[in-house]
Amino acid sequence: MTNASPRPNLAISAYQHLKSDIIRGVYAPGEKLLMSRLKVRYGLGIGPMREALSQLVSEHLVTAASQRGYRVAGMSVQELEAIYDARAHLEGLVLELAISRGDDEWEAEILAKAHTLAKVMEINSADDMLDVWDARHKAFHSAIAAGCRSPQLLQARKALFDQAERYRHLWLCQTVFSEDALETKRQEHAALIKVILARDASKAREMMLEHLMTPVPVIKQVLRDRGLV
């Protein structure tokens, strides 16, 4: 007699699905998250949904008011600029450390992830295109960051990345479906790799800062166009 497979953690499932919907704009900034509707949409009880909402409050994607329930956190240009500024400077530091600590295997992994990212145009479905390009783009930058060999810095990097997700999604929708925008990104990545392999830490940090801040003007315009700020 074989043991039954373990039941999935319902709170984790609720958290993952709700977070994805918030990032993708299924719920608008400031929208009230009614427990009755959440239970129906995700097919889960109050307990798992409350756990999921509490986790999202800690990640600043949801706000909680005493006796007033939960709402999707607002979005603002000020928050956008603050998050991206922190991300860019931390990524620059991580990159400098990676260049000083990374080995040949680290370099090979960067090149492998860049090659995979460059082949994303072979995907036909629009939805798959966005998801796959995003995943491969994250993997490319994570491969670069991994060379710093600091779990603490990488954890801080992930936390800032998570805070930026809603804003990044707006940028992705403007970028992934534009061949010109993708070509610009390919050129930026190629130039960055060249400097990294040359072990020019100062130049690489400067380029990384510029690279990570380029989405900000695009996101600002989308926020304004959609009346989100």
Report on this structure:
The protein has 229 residues and is mainly alpha-helical. The chain folds into two domains: 10-72, Orthogonal Bundle (Arc Repressor Mutant, subunit A), CATH 1.10.10.10; 77-225, Up-down Bundle (Four Helix Bundle (Hemerythrin (Met), subunit A)). The chain contains ten helices and three strands. The chain has helices at residues 10-23, 35-42, 46-58, 77-101, 104-118, 126-146, 151-175, 179-197, 201-213, 215-225; strands spanning 32-33, 62-65, 69-72. It has a three-stranded antiparallel beta sheet with strand order 1-3-2. A hairpin with a 3-residue loop joins β2 and β3 (69-72). α7 (151-175) packs across α10 (215-225). The longest helix is centred in the middle third of the chain and has 25 residues, at 77-101. It starts with 9 loop residues before the first helix and ends with a helix. The relative contact order is 0.12. Mean pLDDT is 91; it is low at 1-7. GO terms for molecular function: DNA binding; DNA-binding transcription factor activity. Keywords: DNA-binding, Transcription, Transcription regulation. This is GntR family transcriptional regulator. Residues 8-75 form the HTH gntR-type domain. InterPro entries: GntR_C (IPR011711), TF_FadR/GntR_C (IPR008920), Tscrpt_reg_HTH_GntR (IPR000524), WH-like_DNA-bd_sf (IPR036388), WH_DNA-bd_sf (IPR036390).
